[in-house]
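Figure S7 source data.
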Amino acid sequence: MKLNYNVDVVIVGAGLAGMYTALKINPDFEVLLLSKEAVDENNSSLAQGGIAACVKSDDSFKLHIEDTLEAGSNMNDIDKLEQLVKCAPNNIEELIALGVEFDREDNGSIKSTMEGGHSRRRVLHAGGDATGREIVKALSIQVKNRSNITVLEDIMALDLILNDSKCVGITALKDSKILNIYSNDTVIATGGIGEIYNNSTNSTIATGDGIAMAYRGGCEINNMEFIQFHPTAFYSKDKGKKFLISEAVRGEGAVLRNKSGERFMEKYHPSKDLAPRDIVSQCIYKEMEKSNTDHVYLDITHRDKEYLENRFPTIYNQCLANGIDMSKDLIPVLPVQHYSIGGIKVDMVGRTNIPSLYACGECSNTGVHGANRLASNSLLECIVFGKKISNDINKNLECFEQAKLSDKDTLVKNQYNVQSNTDIDIYKVKKEIKETMEKYVGIVRWESGLLNAKKKIEGLSEKLKSCLESERACQEAKNMITIALLIINACLDRKESIGCHFRIDKNNGEQI
Ligand code: FAD
Ligand code: SIN
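Tokens for the predicted succinic acid complex:
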């Protein structure tokens, strides 16, 4: 294994954001694509519902923008949102050209479905409910065939390497060794933060590494209080990763019922079960509190087995494996952490405030989602901004003489503790982070709870000071602490309730 690399572009993260960006870089340039585990272990592979794009004749850019603004409580960055929506159809065409096979009607037109907050059926899907798996499969084949892209799996990026405030690469951990990867341009595409919660739909790789390393390097991080909770994860008593029951199931007619079997969303919102996600999750929370239970039910029993097996093959089989036949039984569901809206602040073309450093996908904060993401706009954000980033990098690399760096250059050295070891139980530290976040920084937040959480997390941070930094678990736990504190502080700063951020203490005790 090489100890150091020197490439044109290093992309940290091989989900949709990382892979699509890599594929759009001019093939004359050398790209290194890093993945903490195998390339199909990420949130992109788990995506179910689909990807939002205005491609149907009854839809318009204006409607897609309006729906996104309404879901986001009008906190969205309007210029970036317009770019997101208007660049969607072309990027969908490019995905198709890269081999992604969206589900189609008998006449060949692309099928589309409905999800919460959408006023039109504009969510395109693949493999029924396996949109992410199909996209990742197609893009992985393209990446393998591209001689300018080298993929390194089982490698963990640690920190930015900075030279005169410019990003000139990253340090990374591979087989307990720390290596330097120098690059002209660096893209962080490390995905979400779900691992810091007890219950999440996310892949276990989602420890917020990219946001934490960018923060340490001096990047602006914002909107971290906006953690999206998906209303319908499959209920189980054990803590940890939860299987998602896609919002598209409600898009195809499923309704929510409380413990007594009553529909309740009509009490709260005119769009009922298809209201934006923040509202549905908060209403479920309220129903659970009222009836002193830890879940509600999703009912799609009006659809027959054959339809469900075809339309939602993954979900149908997963429910069956857990003793639930969706065509006959109510599905027990609960809201769990799902998506990080905040992250590394970027401009229209994905640039951070550090020269030569970009961020893309869930780890970035483009501002398109406002205070609550409209369903299926996330995969779209990965490709629209991935394309913008690669265009910018292509221009830079074509215009400027490439100044590759090596160990000999004067760089800000990152110091790692690779010697001393203590008996710190990292697993226990991670568990305590998750429990604290779940208890105090969940769907509802209140000042004393947030202060409690802050104290607990700061205490855990102290414990980790002397842990062995050539171990992945130690680095992840440190990053999880950084992310938890960024979220808690942002929650404390935002006093009002808006979007996914619900401050129960600022609502006169009223929950919703
Ligand atoms: P990811 O796909 O998570 O990829 C992150 C990559 O970074 C991985 O390769 C990982 O190994 C790597 N990485 C992380 N840390 C490091 C490190 N330190 N060093 C090296 N590599 C690192 N959105 C939609 O729009 N539509 C949907 O239908 C949809 N369904 C979803 C269903 C589920 C269950 C989940 C969890 C999410 C869903 N989302 C959906 C959200 C969407 O899937 C994600 O926001 C999006 O895929 C994020 O892509 P990404 O490339 O930014 O991150
Ligand atoms: C889902 O299928 O419900 C997830 C969609 C999303 O997160 O955008």
